[in-house]
Amino acid sequence: MEALTKNSVTVVVGTVVKKLGGRLEGEGELISTDYEVVINENIKGGLTKGRTITVSLPGGSIEFDDGTSAEVRTPQFEHVNPGGDCVLF
Questions:
Q1: What pTM was computed for the model?
Q2: Is residue 44 part of a domain?
Q3: Mean of the per-residue pLDDT values for the chain?
């Protein structure tokens, strides 16, 4: 934990406010899911309490205009839930 904190530019405690949904990245081969997070405590870095940030996590699903969909599952990577607290490095 000490090394992770030391090597991180920013460390904050926040609450997940909303899941913004999945989006394609790169050449359309990757899917990430965005979340709105409100900062509750700044441990390191320049983010201030009360500020809302967007956090992107790998994986998720997306639906295309033609009704088809795609999903990338990341069982080794746990996603956050709206209303839950998290520590971000």
A1: 0.86
A2: yes
A3: 93
- Structural domain range at position 61: 2-75
C-alpha distances in Å from residue 1, one per residue of 5, 31, 43: 6, 28, 13
Cα 12 from chain centre:
13
pLDDT band (50, 70, 90) for residue 61: very high
Residue bearing tokens 């607290």: 85
Q: Residue count of the chain, please give it.
A: 89
Domain count along the chain = 1
Residue with tokens 């790169």: 26
Label residue 4 by pLDDT band (50, 70, 90): confident
Q: In terms of Cα–Cα distance, which of 36, 34, 23 is closest to 84? A: 36
Is 80 domain-assigned?
no
